[in-house]
Amino acid sequence: MALLTAAAQLWGAKNTSCFVLAARHASASSTNLKGVLANLIPKEQARIKTFRQQHGKTVVGQITGIRFRGHSIPECEKLLPKAKGGEETLPEGLFWLLVTDQIPTEEQVSWLSQDWAKRAALPTHVITMLDKFPVNLHPVSQLSAAITALSSESNFARAYAECVHRTKYWELIYEDCMGLIAKLPCAAAKQYWGHWIGPTISPTC
User: Fold this and answer.
1) A cellular component term (GO) from this record (predicted)?
2) Which residues pair with 82 in a beta bridge?
3) Domain boundary among 115, 139, 173
4) Which domain holds residue 25?
5) Three-state secondary structure along 124-180?
6) What is the distance between the alpha carbons of residues 180 and 44, in angstroms, rounded to a whole number?
7) How confident is the model at residue 65 (pLDDT cuts 50, 70, 90)?
8) Which secondary structure element, helix H or strand E, spans residue 68, and what is its range?
């Protein structure tokens, strides 16, 4: 493209358009994707730069910060239950708020914590799979694989195959979500332990 433009300048301004058209045709007909992108990307970069210069200070909305069901982070820190002797809100409390739009009591948070603990054990096949991963496999890849493998425990999948009525979907999805959330800490701990420390860790954490 640059060579064609330079040649056009040497040949004369009135013939420049011919060279530009030839350059565009060469770009469009090229079978080398990287070569096509090399011609297109600088134009797009220039367009974005111009847009930022013209509209970079335009206000599109007021920044209010993160809110959970309408509550700011400082409000959540004040309203949600904390562990005895602790200063930080418990994750179970925030989960309850997100799901129900209600500030939970300490009893409700305690119930949720116990419920997750009962569901936390990993199935044997997930543990075996994590043990067999090479140590250089990225931890996030391992965790993603573990989550996918946990689909074997899905209540929804089994019930869906049996044509359960759709009014029951939410209960099955609830059970699957609660089970997955409960197992995530064990799955993450298992792959971390195997990657950094050794090959064994209790499936119940």
Assistant:
1) mitochondrial matrix
2) 89
3) 115
4) 1-31
5) HHHHHHHHHCCCCCCHHHHHHHHHHHHHHHCHHHHHHHCCCCHHHHHHHHHHHHHHH
6) 42
7) confident
8) strand 67-68
